[in-house]
Hints:
The protein is of the alpha+beta class. 52% of the residues lie in helices and 21% in strands. The protein has helices at 4-55, 60-100, 114-119, 192-207, 221-226, 234-240, 243-255, 292-313, 315-319, and strands spanning 105-107, 129-140, 143-157, 163-177, 186-190, 227-231, 260-265, 268-273. The chain has an eight-stranded antiparallel sheet with strand order 1-2-3-4-8-7-5-6. Helix 7 (243-255) runs antiparallel to helix 8. The model has no long low-confidence stretch (mean pLDDT 82).
Amino acid sequence: MKSASELTDFYYRELYPAVRELEQNRQEIVGRIKWYGGMGIVVFFLCAAWAGKTFGLFHPFVFVLLMGFLAVAGFAYRQISSGYAKDFKTRIITPLIHAIDPHLLYNPGFTVSQHLFERSDLFKRSIDRYSGNDYVKGSIKGVPMEFSDVHAEYQTRDSKGRTQWHTLFRGLFVVAEFNKHFHAKTVILPDHAEKIFGSLIGGWLQSKNFAREGLIRLDDPEFEKRFVVYGSDPIETRYILTHSMMKRILDFQIKLPHPLFVSFVHNHIHIAVATGRDLFEPALFTSLLDYKQAMEYVNTLRNTIGLVEELKLNEKLWSKS
């Protein structure tokens, strides 16, 4: 895998001409959106003024008119911007992924299966709607892996029976297979309880999490500050979470502006980075010439693959268990 500096060089040397063309397209698209948006707002207010004068400002027809304009605006925005997003993925993301590793295959319209997401045991709530995109599959140092953006949601109903959708997880989800079997289950979650309530009360609350298996304490204070670990076999968990692996995970979390979840289940490592959005999707109102947008994905991916590489390095150690 290339280093961060090598990927930066690749970005400027190989991709920058395409980035400049895409940036010009982006500016033209933003100009069209502003023009059509301005015209749409003028038309809407003219129609609303007529409807308000004819039926009254709070008449249901005015509400229907507003909903209709919003639906048309949303449809027009997607139509105008869809080609740009597709070009960005084809000309920027695809070569970046191949630069990280030429054996990685990219499919923008596919996602990691819901079965693998649920098998990770990172999130206990049942899922009512599952989607994703930007699927990548391949192997790193002989370790098969796949990842994609994932959006998992659950549904509730309020006292009046109205449906509400809630995001359980949205972000990058990675699954890597390993040829050593994890007989037990190890789940590493962000330590929200100790962060909010302190080590005494937070630690007590963690130990009373009946949805999880046993709380496992580790001998790395910095790791313990950031994460809480649950597992069914403390000995196996400590074989997996070597000091080197804990440092990898800790360094990864420190670099990330998003919560990190990791589990070792059924001889697979599962890594979830809760970005809250699709990493591959270009921000239409942000300049592409600021390369941080693309490099955020690259750095997140490099650190994720680094965990898989660390897993490979620990293979011999686990064989002694």
